[in-house]
Amino acid sequence: xxxxxxxEIQEEEVEKELVVEEKKxxxxxxxxxxxxxxFKKNVNAEKATDALPFLLFLTLLGMIYIGxxxxxxxxxxxxxxxxxxxxxxxxxxxxxxxxLAFKSTLSEVAKRADTLGIRESxxxxxxLKAEEVNDEH
Length: 137
Known about the structure:
This protein has 137 residues and is mainly alpha-helical. It has helices spanning 2-42, 45-103, 106-115.
């Protein structure tokens, strides 16, 4: 019983190898021969030298495209960095504005002035009147 199973497995493996070998050969022959024939018919030294300026132009365009992409990405990174900095400065501005509003309240000013020895006046202010002087020269 074990011998029969081993022979069946070995036969299946041999069949798979044959099928794989058969599939590889025709595909290679067709692709290589078709590509080689196309290359031989359409490419020669004269056509290659005639196409050289166009290929150089395409290479130049490719290099410009790559350089432009690098510059664009750098600009985007710079813009994001500046936007982050603007947000941080905006937060600092709002914090400073809130602190100033708190420190300029009457009670806070009175507390700070009290440490310097200055007290709030309890007497209301008086209006000074100036007399008009008629000077005729």
